User: Fold Pyridoxal phosphate homeostasis protein from Spongiactinospora rosea.
Amino acid sequence: MSGTTRREEIAAGLEAVEARIAAACRAAGRDRAEVSLVAVTKTYPASDVRILAGLGVRDVAENRAQEAAGKAEECADLPLTWHFVGQLQTNKVRLVVGHAAVVHSVDRPRLVGALSTEAVRAGREVGCLVQVALDDDPTRGGARPADVLAVADAVAAAEGLALRGVMAVAPLGEEPAKAFARLREIAGAVRAGHPAATVISAGMSGDLDEAIANGATHLRIGTALLGRRKPFVR
Assistant:
């Protein structure tokens, strides 16, 4: 629409997403207050983060350590909780621990150790979600389902870290509802040993309804809020 300001575009996106979340919660018999919206702002400018904050969004996520650290610094005056949702290399952990309250992509013991070291050094507690590779293929990030409990135990035992729950992306080519049903089972197994690990981070712009129906507590929404991303150029 010509003449539409960026704030109006984002406000319209947020309103539409909120309506979808409310409808999905009603359909699932859940309270809207049980579900947190995490705005994924990767590749978008800090000005968009400011607009989201002005519209009441409090949880913001990034997936590249350098971009995340810079944006968090630029927006340090805003009342935001920063989430890191991308695959994380151990040599980028310090950058992420510097700003992120929650890391959604913890998938191996070595990463747990690096996060613990940096959290202790920074005097911070970092919330961690164990990322699950629902297709049993860890090459795209995530622990195999059979390894999730061991990674969860490692997080729970690590100084400076708090086990908050699990995260997953629905595999390409599979019905999201089936994938998220498996995640819900895995989340229950983690919670059996760690009752405080109540977070299920699942659901993006295309499958948030199925995620809510299967117990998601945190939705990671980018496109539906902010529009299609331009191709990322390094």
Observations:
- Strands lie at 36-40, 59-62, 81-84, 102-106, 126-131, 161-167, 199-201, 218-221.
- The chain has one domain: 6-226.
